[in-house]
Design brief:
By secondary structure, this protein is of the alpha+beta class. The protein contains ten helices and nine strands. The strands form two sheets. The chain has a six-stranded mixed sheet with strand order 5-4-3-2-1-6. It has a three-stranded antiparallel sheet with strand order 7-8-9, with no helix packed on it. Strand 7 and strand 8 form a beta hairpin.
Length: about 280
């Protein structure tokens, strides 16, 4: 059944309310970061083929839409409220109506309810929605750092896309923060994971290194300088990781064209000058 005039007016109000709800927006943004990190890990070779949209117009389940490379569309509704039930407001009817519309369109789709109240009863999905609906718990936290420290699945999702082995809290905070900044700072309509990745790389200014960044390349001349002083080294993402013989001293640095030029133009006289250059 086509969307009625009354339904269009309802969706307009629903959409506007979602935009204006700052508490809900924070919850939705944190969950978006979780999705982005998970999707980066899952589709590392297909970043262009995965897109996210928030507050999707003309949809009854509208908080977040993930469109995957297989054509599947996952519609998310996020509820950061206590005592949530399927009878609350128009929750059940919204899911039912979205199911009907997506089926009429012949979409490959799933509906997903994300809730923050661990005591909620929404895990028992109404029978008529079971074939296309899942529910998922995601906690409500006042800050991104609090979420990272308290919710292991979120921490693990961020850890899996970092390049540093056994990444410390500050690095995890940096990765999560840069993704949040990109998401909140952009137009959240059909934004690809590739675009998010590229903006994160541009805005990270060297302090964030993510698996999806392409590896930098060292010139043969710079490799020879490092080898001359017995350095062990490798590149990963945007950084050069180095250590002296025996591993007594080690570090990492963003490898940029400017750094390569400095090394070529002012060849270090000894390993200490080289360490200073790489610090």
């Amino acid at each position: 059944m086509p969307v009625t005039k009354a339904e269009r007016n309802y969706l307009k109000r629903k959409h506007q309310g979602g935009r204006n709800n700052s508490k809900g927006a924070s919850y939705e943004s944190f969950y978006a970061v979780y999705c982005i990190a998970s999707l980066m890990e899952r589709y590392m070779q297909r970043l262009d083929d995965v897109c996210l949209s928030s507050q999707v117009e003309a949809c009854f389940v509208d908080d977040l839409l993930v469109a995957g490379p297989d054509g599947k569309r996952i519609y998310h509704q996020l509820k950061d409220v206590k005592g949530l039930t399927w009878k609350a407001g128009r929750l059940k009817s919204d899911f039912t109506r979205q199911m009907e519309l997506s089926e009429e369109e012949g979409e490959n789709f799933r509906l997903k309810l994300v809730y923050s109240d661990p005591k909620s009863t929404v895990t028992k999905i109404p029978e008529e929605l079971e074939r296309c609906t899942t529910v998922s718990f995601f906690p409500s936290c006042s800050t991104l750092n609090q979420l990272l420290l308290s919710y292991q699945p979120f921490r693990e999702a961020i850890r899996q896309i970092t390049l540093t082995e056994e990444a410390k809290d500050d690095e995890l905070f940096g990765v999560a923060g840069i993704l949040l900044g990109v998401w909140n700072g952009g137009v959240q309509t059909a934004i690809s994971i590739r675009h998010i990745n590229d903006v994160a790389r541009r805005n990270g200014k060297g302090y964030v290194n993510i698996k999806t960044y392409p590896n930098v390349e060292l010139s043969a001349e710079c490799r020879q300088i490092l080898e001359r002083y017995g350095f062990q080294f490798h590149t990963s993402g945007i950084k050069l990781y180095w250590s002296t013989a025996g591993g007594r001293l080690k570090g990492e640095v963003e490898w940029t064209p400017e750094l390569e030029c400095r090394m070529k133009e002012h060849v270090p006289a000894d390993k200490f000058e080289l360490i200073e250059l790489l610090s």
